[in-house]
């Protein structure tokens, strides 16, 4: 049984399993491993310090796989924004055929990517934003539920509601993000109307993930309660791994702290050091509630194969047992 969907056909991959962009994590070795396993991986453009470095990372990924992969470009407001147009041009010049966009108002980027025949998958956290992206001309949607790592939006709608609500209205292919990590999740996402799953935290905890072994082991040790929501009072909610720093930020917010009061605690350079040196409390780092369902550190090949196999067994076995023919009922 092959799980072929509109999404796998759109991007030309074997399995409906995606590794989305992750700051400091979405590097060539992980992306290529996902691609070689039959899934779709995304290099994170802004993890690279310059557009030229991104070009080199794309070429490094090509040296590790002959299968399709993409690049994530996240557009966020910043005092000193990165040169998004230059990163975009690096993606185009490198011949990348699939891009994941995220963040605010990506219209100009979508337009440019589409001019060059690039498939655009836009990541969003609400039905209204998914519909806006569809009108914008993107090719597929990645809908992100409240369980996710990173920015879940401000509506607090979990995947069990958000995915079918979006599926009822979105006409283009849609994959489900936030809270996925095994075959049960994939089968559930397909049942809810999605055509694949996007995973971040689960792929962080693989052999090829370019983060410190101690952090992978921390993810395994954590449970579904091991996250904090920071920046709630600033209406820029972010779900991160619970640690000494996140608890401090939450406490300061309860006292009325502004961003300037926590800026040093949440600095990106500190978060990066978590992955580099393996100190869980060195800074803020993203992780989702799916931590409660992560119990090992497999290779990407092992993980993707297991997820697809489990989903197939659930669809053909467990769910099929609940279906009783009309003739049997009459008899």
UniProtKB/TrEMBL annotation:
Q: List the InterPro entries hit by this protein, alphabetically.
A: Aldolase_TIM (IPR013785), NMO (IPR004136)
The EC number(s) attached to this protein equal: 1.13.12.16
First and last residue of the signal peptide: none
Give the record's keywords alphabetically.
Flavoprotein, FMN, Monooxygenase, Oxidoreductase
Oxidoreductase keyword on record: yes
Which SUPFAM superfamilies does the entry link to?
Answer: Inosine monophosphate dehydrogenase (IMPDH)
The UniProt GO MF terms for this protein read: nitronate monooxygenase activity
Q: What is this protein called?
A: Nitronate monooxygenase
